[in-house]
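To whoever is on call:

I kicked off a structure prediction for a single chain this morning and the downstream step that reads the tokens threw a length-mismatch warning. I double-checked the sequence; it's 126 residues and nothing unusual in it as far as I can see. Pasting both halves so you can look.
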Amino acid sequence: MNNPFIIGIISWILPGLGHLLQGRLKRGLIIVAVFWAMFIIAVLSGGAYYPGFDFKDGTLLYLLNIFARLGSGLGAIISFVLMSSPPNNVASWATFEYGGRFLEIAGLLNYLAVLDAVDIQQGRKK
């Protein structure tokens, strides 16, 4: 794979795969483990249903939440599907906001992993 764009897309869709394809086994497995652990904890905590408000209620916070969640690639699709039918009492869960933060941080972590994979592919990092 000599195309940094392809490496970036693969790394974004499946976190850690870009590193694994480049032979960075240890780094790739760490990214896979950390990302998916954070993602699973976030979803089980009710984070897929956060924020509990609409675009009109808090525009900037809503957009930041969406941007961070989109960083998850495949995880973003999973979380958006789960978000479409939230339980009635999800906002009363004690872990609701923590789960939302975990989900956002997992997406932001994946953005950094994508940049790292592209830098490795282009030879800017070893």
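Update from on-call: the warning came from a stale cache, not from the record. Cleared it. Sanity check on the structure: Residues 4-121 form one domain.
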